[in-house]
Amino acid sequence: QVIYVARNPKDVAVSFYHFHRLAKFLPDPGSFDSFLTQFLEGTVQYGSWFDHVKGWLGQRQLLDIFYVTYEELHQDLCGTAQRIGTFLGCPLGPETLRALGEHCSFASMRDNSMTNYTLIPPEIMDHSQGRFMRKGEVVGDWRDHFTPQQNALFNRRYQEEMGELELPARWPM
Asked: Helix, strand, or coil here: 102?
């Protein structure tokens, strides 16, 4: 069984840009504009978002995959967790769901040194550049970063790559 979590690719690009600024083991991202170009070309570390998502969508017939989005988790963490538990054959009880909601909230994880990367030494993560868990409460942060031209470029590329695919979720683009 596979649980596949996807996120609005525009938010992925913004988040990954900020992660590149923190992570000393990754190349300097340069300007957001140049990073976005690399993201759209699939030349960023770990490759193309489009190829990754299409690759896993292509496995639907072969594997038992539960598709979920970051946005679903953000909107209804406990309900989504319950659906995941059902998929795995182990439904979650009310106390487990309560604890999950408490410990997996963005605020809790942001303040937890086991999840927020603050234990990573400064030789690896430049904490002076910001926090790893930056704006997780916000879905659609891309709107604060993309220019209208970048948005149009991204939408064209998205349509070229993903246009005919039946995605488990549609994001506001």
From this structure: helix
User: Which sign, positive or negative, has the C-alpha torsion 83, 89, 93, 95?
Assistant: negative
Return the CATH fold of 2-162: Rossmann fold (3.40.50)
Q: How many residues appear in the chain?
A: 173
pTM: 0.83
Phi, psi values for residue 16, rounded to 5°: -70, -35
For residue 5, list its beta bridge partners: 68
Strand partners, 68: 5
| Tens of pLDDT, residues 125-148 | 766 666 655 566 668 889 999 999
State how far the Cα of 92 lies from the Cα of 72, in Å rounded to an integer: 18
